Formate dehydrogenase subunit gamma
Amino acid sequence: MTTLTMTTAQVPSRAPSWRQRCWRLCLMLVLLVASLGVTQLAVAQADPNREMTTAAPGITAEQWRQVRSGETGPNYRDSRHESNYNLINASGETWRILRNRWVSPFGLIAVLGMASVITLFYLVIGRKHLDEPRTGRKLFRWSLFMRSLHWTVATLFITLALTGLNLLYGKFVFRTLFGDAVWAWMISASKVLHNYLGPMFGILLIVLLVKLLKDNIPKKHDLQWFKQGGGLVGKGHPDAGFANGGEKAWYWLLATAGLIVVASGFVLDFPNYGQGRDTMQWANIIHAVGALGLTAVALGHIYIGTVGTEGSLEGMTTGYVDETWAKEHHNLWYEEVKDQAISEEELAARKAGGSSEPSTAKPS
């Protein structure tokens, strides 16, 4: 008679202890208090007159009358050679109101709201563990090239998101905390990083999208994936190929809104191609709306791919995933490649031989 034994590492504990419950409750209270501060910051962002008092003091009703009637003289003109553009103009005021009254506050609500929802989800639902024990057999999923490309694009995205948020909101936080000297250095560094890394991100994003295109073509079973909330609704896991419905949605969001953000960023980054200030103003609004929306959704992608789902991060760090993970989350893909599964010993031998990838491995 054979006795089957399992180690504690193979069977994860799914029931949180009383200490974990207390910790989660305390974190929820902190989150609630922090949300009150976010509300106040959003209200402050929605006041366009607050910035106007320091950005352009002394603009009177008579000056606005002159601007709108075309009576402005050289003191109101752009100093560039042969430019007839008025530095004080109605379109600039429209841009300022859109940016300060709508884009800034609602963008802040979207980003911090998503972070709050994710935190609350983790506290209430917890991490998604595998339903069955790991088999220890590995399936190759991501090549070194694709992993390197993914992490490079991800690092650039996070850097651009942080510097962009600093450019938009940092003065309300860091200037108050550290003073003008530190704030001036931070905003200057953020601007340089954002301007120089943006084009690099755009080029590599296009390369990544091209490489992943064939695995992200929508299929009929993706609709069922969304109906089941990726497995949160109903029984069992919905069908999924190499990429599930959620991953495909993120891909096409990057392929549409992401490329729009890149294109508008190029308009802002290279003003020496003849685009006027009105074009730059609209590019700025489009860029901000798209970037803030992508940042909010990216938080969910990051959560699911790291602490939110057991086994997900392994594929993008080692290139291999456990058989159980593949069967539960990408069953259609698993059926195609299950005969290629190797043991941990075989994988270790490959690494010892200088390469952990199959000789016939494809980029994706």
About this structure: The longest strand covers residues 138-140. The two ends are 44 Å apart (CA to CA). Residues 90-124 form the longest helix (35 residues).
